């Protein structure tokens, strides 16, 4: 019986002794966490003010615009963010994603000012994506424009003949095989492709003219896939200002009507991914340019 009572007492105090053992074992770690919390805790009654400005980046070829569109739409719903700087360095890309981003910028501009900044290249699809911004600012050496549309294909039939491969096709619809690489396009297929390309081109011209208050009846002055250095692009009306990113940030602050600019900081991981994407895109563009020149 005495042993049973002793065991009951030990069981009764087991939680307490376990807690004391834990504290003794991890005492240094607990002290470290406490100091860390004290250092990170705001002093006194001072509150941490939320960011009121944000940046969104568009780097590299446009293949899928979903991530940029989602980010723009989220910022439209964020009442703390009063203005957005849209930083662009892209040669363009697929039509549909470019238009999707353009419409997201247009939606965002209805809620708060958007300044688009041409960091290096704002051409073709990336220019399309930027046209509805409240203002467009460009680095003095930036390349602007390339308002045009291209659809490319190849005829690999000679190669297939050489290696002894012959395609077999079953189709329904006269134009279903339009654009095939397995043979030379027929005249009516080429005409259909040209019609499609011109439809997109006229849409591009019309939207640029509307967004930038240009004359759609005279696209030769700003379109025809011509590229312009920033100062010339400003004279033509494709951009509003030539300047640095610091000036673009200041303009964003002014249009947003905030007295103190507090930019939303991205995580180290987001910054790393953006920098990696930017470097990869530039390396790809440089390699492609070298290959074309050769």
Characterize this entry briefly.
By secondary structure, the chain is an alpha/beta fold. The chain is built from eleven helices and seven strands.
General description of the model:
There is one protein chain. α4 (66-77) packs parallel to α5. β1, α4 and β2 (83-90) form a beta-alpha-beta unit. The termini are far apart. By secondary structure, the protein is an alpha/beta fold. The chain has helices at 2-12, 14-25, 27-40, 66-77, 95-109, 125-130, 157-163, 187-212, 230-236, 245-256, 268-293, and strands at residues 53-59, 83-90, 114-123, 135-138, 143-145, 227-229, 241-242. Strands 1, 2, 3, 4, 5, 6 and 7 form a seven-stranded mixed β-sheet that branches. It has three domains: 2-40, no CATH class; 53-146 and 226-293, 2-enoyl-CoA Hydratase, Chain A, domain 1; 151-217, no CATH class.
Helical residues, percent: 40-55%
- The proportion of strand residues reads 5-15%
How many structural domains? Answer: 3
Number of helices: 11
For the record, what is the CATH homologous superfamily label of the largest domain?
2-enoyl-CoA Hydratase, Chain A, domain 1
Extract low-pLDDT stretches: 288-294
Cα-atom Rg, whole angstroms?
A: 29 Å
CATH architectural grouping of the largest domain: Alpha-Beta Complex
Mean pLDDT: 85
Major β-sheet profile: 7 strands, mixed
CATH topology of the largest domain: 2-enoyl-CoA Hydratase, Chain A, domain 1
Q: What's the order of the H and E elements?
A: HHHEHEHEHEEHHEHEHH
Structural class by secondary-structure content: alpha/beta
Anisotropy-based shape? extended
Distance from N terminus to C terminus (CA atoms, Å) equals 98 Å
């Amino acid at each position: 019986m005495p042993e049973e009572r002793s065991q009951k007492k030990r069981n009764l105090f087991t939680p307490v002794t376990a807690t004391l053992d834990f504290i003794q074992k991890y005492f240094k770690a607990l002290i470290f966490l406490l100091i860390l919390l004290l250092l990170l805790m705001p002093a006194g009654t001072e509150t941490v003010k939320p960011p009121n400005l944000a940046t969104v980046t568009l780097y590299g070829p446009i293949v899928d615009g979903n991530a940029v569109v989602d980010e723009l739409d989220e910022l439209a719903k964020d009442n703390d963010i009063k203005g957005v700087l849209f930083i662009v360095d892209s040669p363009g890309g697929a039509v549909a994603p470019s238009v999707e981003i353009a419409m997201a910028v247009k939606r965002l501009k209805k809620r708060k000012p958007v300044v688009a900044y041409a960091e290096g290249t704002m051409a073709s699809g990336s220019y399309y994506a930027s046209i509805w911004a409240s203002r467009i600012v460009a680095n003095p050496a930036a390349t602007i424009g390339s308002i045009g549309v291209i659809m490319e294909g190849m005829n690999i039939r000679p190669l297939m003949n050489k290696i002894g491969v012959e395609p077999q096709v079953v189709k329904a619809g006269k134009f279903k095989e339009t654009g095939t690489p397995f043979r030379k396009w027929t005249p009516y297929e080429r005409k259909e492709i040209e019609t499609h390309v011109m439809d997109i081109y006229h849409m591009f011209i019309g939207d640029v003219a509307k967004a930038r208050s240009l004359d759609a009846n005279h696209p030769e002055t700003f379109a025809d896939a011509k590229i312009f250095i920033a100062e010339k692009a400003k004279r033509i009306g494709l951009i509003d200002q030539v300047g640095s990113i610091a000036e673009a940030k200041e303009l964003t602050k002014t249009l947003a009507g905030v007295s103190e600019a507090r930019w939303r900081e991205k995580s180290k991981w987001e910054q790393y991914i953006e920098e990696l994407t930017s470097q990869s895109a530039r390396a790809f563009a440089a390699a492609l340019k070298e290959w074309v020149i050769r």
